[in-house]
Every structure is written in C-alpha cells, then in structure tokens.
Hints:
By secondary structure, this protein is α/β, with parallel strands linked by helices. The protein folds into two domains: 2-111, Immunoglobulin-like, CATH 2.60.40; 151-321, 3-Layer(aba) Sandwich (Rossmann fold). The chain has seven helices and 17 strands. It has helices at 93-98, 155-167, 188-196, 211-220, 238-241, 260-270, 288-298; strands spanning 2-15, 19-29, 39-47, 53-57, 64-71, 81-92, 104-106, 108-110, 125-132, 137-144, 178-182, 201-206, 226-230, 247-251, 276-281, 299-309, 312-321. The strands form three sheets. It has a seven-stranded mixed sheet with strand order 13-12-11-14-15-17-16. A six-stranded antiparallel sheet has the order 4-3-6-8-9-10. α6 runs parallel beside α7 (288-298). It starts with a strand and ends with a strand.
Amino acid sequence: MLYHVRFLKVPSARRGNKGYNVKCVLSLTNDLGDEFFYGDCDMEIAVGQNRPGIVKWKPGMRSVSYEQEIPMYKIKGPVVVRARVLENTVKDHLQDLENHAENGFFPLSSEPLNIAKDMTISEKRAVREINYKKAGISLKMVEETGESIAKHLWDGAIIGMYELLEDDPVGLPKQPRHILELGAGCGLIGIGFAQLYKRSNVVLTDLDDAEEICKYNIKLNQVPNAKFKEFDWNEDDQEVTSVNWDLVLITDCIYNDDSYAALIGALTRVAKPSTRFIMGHKHRHQDEAKFFTQLNEKFTITNDKTLTRFGQPIRLIEFKLK
Length: 322
C-alpha cells in the first residue's frame, strides 16, 4: 500500500529562548486518511536549515508531534518543514500477518513559514514533489490538509501516472491535439499530460470546489497549454461536449456510486468515435462493479491491465464509444 505522510496540524512557530520553536503534528495514512500505517518506522523531519530530527512511529499510532527550535541567526528567509519515512527502518506488522507486498511512503513539505515577516503559521496545504524519471517530468503538487476529497492527491492518479509515463502499458498517442480530464481534483493527471504533450490543448475539469487548488497547481507547474474549466457531469456544457477530444482521462472518480449515472452521461456526451478514454482505478468497494456494468452498455473496453507499484494495485482501463 502507498502511505502518505500528512500534516494533521500544519507547522506553526512561537518565540523561544534563542529563536523560534516550530511545531507540527503528522500522521501516516492511506490516501483517504481512514487507515493508518500499522508498523514501526523512523520519520525524518527537517525544519528549515536545521539538522533533521527523527521521530519514531509505532503500531497503533494515529499521530506524532514534532517540535524544534530554530536559532535567530538561521532565520534568513521562509522556513519549510519537510517530512519523509526512512524506508530502511520500516517494519510493517500487518505485512507479517497478511503477506502484503512492499509498501511505499509519500513524503511531503509544508508551504513556506515566513517567520521573519511575522507569519507564524503556514498555509493549510502540503506540497508533494513527484518525479517521473523516464518521461523527464517533475511535478510539484499542492494539496489541502482539510477534509475536502476534491483537494487531495489520490493513489489512482499518483500510481496511474507512474505506470503511464514510466512503462506506458496502453500505448499513448504520439501527439493528441485535445486532451480532457474529468474529475481533475488537484490536477495531477492533466498537468502531467500537459508537460508530456506541450503542443496539446489540455482542459482539466471538475466542480467549482476544486477550481482554486487546480488553478494554483497549473500556475505552480508553469503549463501554459493547460487550463481549468468547471464542468458538472449532470449538465450539457457545450464548451466541453462540442470539442473533438482525442484523449479523455479519468482517475479515482467512482468512489461514490450515486454519481455513476452522471459520469456515464458525461462520458457519452464528450465521446466521439475517435476519442480514446483512459481510466485509472483503485478498487475501494464492491459497488464499483455497477459502474462497469453501466460502462459496458455504451462503451467497449479495449485494454484492461492491473499493475502494482508501491504494493498498491491500480487498474488501467482503456475504452471507446460503441
């Protein structure tokens, strides 16, 4: 399984004896935050230019606090807190019991804490750096630390992108003109494809709840050929449905079975005979089978592979209009 280092409380600073004490609260969970890593590991936490410290994560823990003082002479600009799991220290107790595959651990950084300008609490966001070495693509993605599911990075996108860009099991097109992402959230997939296909027009769509974080990430990654467009699956928005899309991307969009009919409707409206659809899917519950039953009524699945990375199976499905 892929575990995410998370901020439960973003870094904050208060004046100490010789500088500022920076404190944060971290956790180690799955992508939805509803399952905690049950094992031992060392978490390395670096505060600004200070020497990194170590905190111990133990089975049954749900959070861990860390505090470190930064001397005044080291505060010369914004302070960033970075946290990662030292993978050579990991012992997964559930792995022993259930023979799980090897886990992965997703590090994070905070937004800058500008103590010198009296900014003593960082923005409630986390920064993830993701490198797809074979494709020569490096992304810096920001997600929020709150409860909104639209503003988090999900495994289907993270691992699906690794598989598509590193190994390309579906045979990506050479140069699609128009690329659409449905349910973009933070925008990882669409931004990655905008970097891969710099001459393509890439449109990332979602509800208005995701607009701010998605636009932020588009600007952060400097992809002028990508833009965000609000798109409700229940509506026939001609700005979206009238385009002859070469490639449509969907990841982690079927966690809610109440949205299946709307998603199938949206897929049908954006589809043209030549449109290729690629879907990244992490299995979460049995009701997902209902979606694929509905999908098969209007679309033909042309490629279906289950691939595992970081111990997490991800299904990549390619389909087209019947």
